[in-house]
Amino acid sequence: MQATLSTELEILTDKIRSRTAKVGVIGLGYVGLPLAMEFATAGFPVTGIDVDPSKVEKLKAGRSYIQDVPSGTLHPFVNSGKFRATMDFSVIAHLDTVNIAVPTPLRKTKDPDMSYIMAAAGEIAKYAHPGLLVILESTTYPGTTEEVLLPILQKSGMKVGVDFFLCFSPERVDPGNPQYQTRNIPKVVGGITPACTEIGTLFYAQALEQVVSVSNTSVAEMVKLLENTFRMINIGLANEMAMMCDRMGINVWEVIDAAATKPFGFMPFYPGPGLGGHCIPIDPFYLSWKTKQAGIEARFIELAGYINGQMPLFVVDKVQTALNKHVKPLMGSHVHILGVSYKRDIDDVRESPALDIMHLLEKRGAKVTYSDPHVPSVKFDGHRCAAEDFASSVERADCVVIVTDHKAFDYHLLVARAKLIVDTRNALKGFASEKIVRL
Ligand code: SAJ
Q1: Is 227 in the pocket of ligand 1 (CB under 6 A)?
Q2: What is the 275 CA–ligand 1 centroid distance (Å)?
């Protein structure tokens, strides 16, 4: 017999189908703001909530600070009142749905920092009401939604799946990706109960092109962790291959490019100076932290984390050896770094291996400068360092290290002017010169 739909489920279903449901998004960063825009585009009234007053002020003025959300997209929604930004969580009392897209960093001890999720959950609990759909999007360990969020929301006495609805849906935003944006990236969603999964699926289907329902929140949480752990471990394998090939005098880049011609059963990953960003180096440790609690060692993750963590040291040793061949000690030499963001053509320096490399070089007595068209200044080792002019620096330096292969760099000028180059990204693939040392 068809379970009778709860009244709340029926009411919310109607509001979502008619796109009159009042949508809320907590956390207006590279995940939350694009998501808010998709629901505003679909015709829903959307309220963005953030604890950062500067973000809220900019949004109120119709000014976007997210690369994937042009102000030209944002401004009309602000003007028409379809989107409004606030710091006031009490608006949740009048919302029908709330998505949580807050940071989930790691503590220094590599333990998950759940403080942002707990803070958001605490605010939602204050204003939660019958008929509310809550969806957590922040990457986290399997069990978070059921073990952490659900108890906080159930304190209200409401019954999940009947009075309110709770889902997890992993964010898959790839900032700056010209092909895949929030709207056309398949959206996985799993609920605490079948009714939660059903309403969460219906919700996303109004604004996004493809929705993938899974049976519960833990499956949905694990999907994201598999995706990014897969990536981190394979990058670790590529880095270990680089160290093996280096020892055996084999060009690892040529090996990978040739292997990549295999039309099935292989996917190229590339060695580099280390693993940066706020996803790949972080997410897998949410998984290994949880499995440890379950008594299972996530050995692949730990090993890949170790290997990836060794790459800055491997690069610095390469620089020292290269200078040595030029009868120059690293101590007192001028080493110029090209690119400090964690990957090419972006301005994000979070967890960037360039900072580790600069720190290690300074510790060994080198004079370190950098150029990066996307990063005018960077703070490391407690001091702020400004980007230097590319052309003059590459000419002056005893050694230039390509750490992040921005497209904006003039690699022809670099090869013409530099005395010695260590290339950690195969950016100089097409160049042949004694002065180039490859990873
Ligand atoms: N890296 C390598 N070798 C590789 C690929 C990456 O050393 O073969 C390094 C990068 O230089 C960077 C780090 O790994 O330092 C992470 O790079 P990334 O390309 O994975 O970029 P992210 O951190 O922006 O990862 C995001 C993730 N997206 C989400 O979590 C939603 C990831 O799942 C995507 O696969 C990735 O973007 C992407 O493909 O661009």
Answers
A1: yes
A2: 8
